[in-house]
Design a protein that fits this description.
This protein is of the alpha+beta class. The chain has 17 helices and 24 strands. Helix 14 (463-474) crosses helix 15 (485-500) and helix 15 packs antiparallel against helix 16. This is S41 family peptidase.
Amino acid sequence: MKFNSHYLPIVIGASLAIGVLVGSFVSNPNPTSFSKTSVSKNKLNTLIDFINNEYVDSVNTDSIVNMTVDKILSQLDPHSVYIPPSELAQVSENMKGDFVGIGVNFYMYKDSVAVIKTIENGPSEKAGILAGDRILYAGKTKLFGRNLPTDSLFAQLKGTQGSEVELTLFRKSIGKKLKVKLKRDVIPIKSVDAALLLTPKMGYIKINRFAETTFAEFKKGLSQLQKNKINALVLDLRENGGGYMEEAIAIADEFLKEKQLIVFTKSKNGTEEKTYATNKGSFLNGKLYVLIDENSASASEIVAGAIQDNDRGIIVGRRSFGKGLVQREMDFKDGSAIRLTVARYYTPTGRSIQKPYNHGKEDYFKEYGARFKSGELYVKDSIKVADSLKFKTPKGKIVYGGGGIVPDVFVPTEIEQGDEHVGYILQSGMIGRFVFEYLDANRNEFKNTSFEDFRNKMKNSDQFYKWFQSYVYDASFEVPLAKNKELINRYVAAEFARQLYGEKQYYLLTLGNDAMIKKVLKQK
């Protein structure tokens, strides 16, 4: 997952951006034993003792140990990582699917906590907090003008369920301070962004990651769509960096017939574990399309691989990230943890889709830029596949291993060739920050404007593009945007819809002109 702390909002009550890793994790039912001793381990322990007892200056040996752990793991693979105590709680919380808090999305804007949007039916919405409000105090704790670290800020807004907090707000629209009391409650962190109809009989479900609640959210969305008697479904896994393998398996199970292989893993000692579909599938016969791109990884690739290898549906988009490694979390007593690669996974035909990582972690995670330069984001024939890694599905379709899932139907990126900097802008969160700042200064411009009125306003208008273009130039970014005018206009307008109306409205605006959706509709 890509994370840019300057542009992305801090979110209380929605998906939290995590820069820890892209990957599938499996549970650890049996605590791992570390009883085995070695000369090297004793040498490391003795060195730490020497430094503690004899070194001339005072040294924080904990930090040395942490650096050593990081260095060791960096020699293994890009997905084996150390998570310090300060980050573990947030990482675990995001994958859990909920937390206890006040229920707002916010930016740290000019050293103030600025509310982007309240979470529907959450404590803040019920207390009357509005978009644009600044949270000045939580109780007697000052939150502005202090450059508080993120974990300290979270600690003031989170708490135990039912605990009360008095917030002091500044409401910019009326220029006054207000005090509100609210009780903290459980706030969902949704992993299913949208479940809606593309046509009267074609459903669409967007999954942003695979967390503990993902299958339950997916199942709820699918059931709602099936009430409309849909005969086709688009499962959107673009930009989905993965998560829990079990959730991916449960979703794949909904589409496959009993005893069809979903995935299998192999560990260091050669132990092989196969997972098959059950008789619980609820969407076995309708047309199925799975959307992937270069940032679809791990658990997303498990789903796409299972669908492709069983000839169940059509994979649409661009070659996926290429992660075929499985991690297990192992905890330390100080509250930190490591996520260690313990197995490789394989698609039903026997493919490993893990891409090479022998050139280091930086090149591994920056391969996006290399794909731009090679032209594979524009032309399917530019995708490099090895004939030695050729496999056949039951119906004779040729599929390849060795670095991601190659789609059945290729759709080039909508970013004009040579303009990869536009791709980075779209991913950076810069659009979200621009929209917040514009609304913060001009919120009355949209007062009493319904979503339908807003959508009609944006049709055949490039006003959103012009606003953003001015913002980019004022920020001294020398980035030519004109060739990507329609694309940028669409996503800026959609971000206005998200911050004004909600996540569903964002997708209602983006999907209408989405290149992959257009390709799917032509497949019918």
